[in-house]
Write a structure and sequence with these properties.
Family: Belongs to the short-chain dehydrogenases/reductases (SDR) family.
GO molecular function, one term: oxidoreductase activity
Largest sheet: 7 strands, parallel
Keywords: Oxidoreductase
Strand order of the largest sheet: 3-2-1-4-5-6-7
Distance between the termini: 41 Å
CATH class: Alpha Beta
Shape: globular
Protein name: SDR family oxidoreductase
CATH superfamily: NAD(P)-binding Rossmann-like Domain
Helix content: 40-55%
Order of helices and strands: EHEHEHEHEHEHHHE
InterPro entries: NAD(P)-bd_dom_sf, Sc_DH/Rdtase_CS, SDR_fam
CATH architecture: 3-Layer(aba) Sandwich
Length: 251
């Protein structure tokens, strides 16, 4: 038996990278998982990797569209009766992100829209469903850049700092509804989103050397942290930011 048997989970951004690793691990532990992605074929690929059609549901939804988010949650409830768990992961590192001197309005809007508004809308509608079935647990995806800054990505740093605040605000708002809210804060994780940077061997070696744990992070590292925060084992943990960065930011 898995640790999440009989639980219903939603994973946004579940079509690749950390979201895919999270969806697969939650399913491995017994949860039924709704894999949500802006691109349906990516969600379907993850659902196929889970392999059990009774425990994986692929759903297309754009997290910045409240109508699509509301319908996504409603579809999960229609299919499985309730929602217990959420990994609120969908986000972007915008290809045109830049320093505050150079960033354009479109990049600001798209970065804050997906990374902040998107997490707020998904949490809003999922928490409403959770409250109707007795509670649940939410894990957002922030970043080690919620605590420190990096040059040239003002939009991303701002958006992830916002998720740290949102996590605490939701933990307070949702505690009366028996819903715990936490966030994971990954450092550099090798995914499709970071593949461009990962192609620079010199940068990667410098980054690897800057970590106390001398390797680059993998999606499975973050998925394991997400699992812990969603488990009953973490039943006394809410409003916390769990850093998964190889010891980078403490130096």
């Amino acid at each position: 038996m898995g640790k999440l048997d009989c639980k219903i989970a939603i994973v946004t951004g579940g079509g690749s990278g950390i979201g895919r690793a999270s969806a697969e691990l939650l399913a491995k532990e017994g949860a039924k998982v709704a894999v949500v992605d802006k691109y349906l074929h990516k969600a379907q690929e993850t659902a196929a990797l889970i392999g059990d059609t009774d425990r994986a549901l692929a759903i297309q939804a754009d997290v910045v569209n409240e109508t699509e988010v509301s319908e996504m949650v409603a579809q999960v409830v229609r299919e499985w009766g309730q929602v217990d768990l959420l990994h609120n992961h969908a986000g972007i590192l915008h290809p045109h992100d830049a320093s505050i001197l150079e960033i354009d309005e479109k990049t600001i809007d798209e970065t804050l829209g997906i990374n902040v508004k998107g997490q707020m809308l998904v949490a809003k509608h999922t928490a409403r469903a959770m409250s109707k079935s007795g509670g649940g647990a939410i894990v957002g995806t922030a970043s080690d850049l919620s605590f420190i800054a990096l040059a040239g990505v003002a939009g991303y740093v701002t958006s992830k700092a916002a998720i740290a605040g949102l996590t605490r605000a939701m933990a307070v708002d949702l505690a009366p509804h028996n819903i715990r809210v936490n966030a994971v804060c990954p450092g550099f994780i090798y995914t499709g989103m970071t593949a461009g940077l990962a192609g620079n061997a010199e940068v990667m070696e410098s980054m690897r050397e800057s970590y106390l744990i001398k390797r680059l992070g993998q999606p499975s590292d973050v998925a394991s942290a997400v699992l812990y925060l969603l488990l009953p084992d973490a039943g006394f943990v809410t409003g916390s930011l769990l850093v998964v960065d190889g010891g980078h930011i403490i130096q």
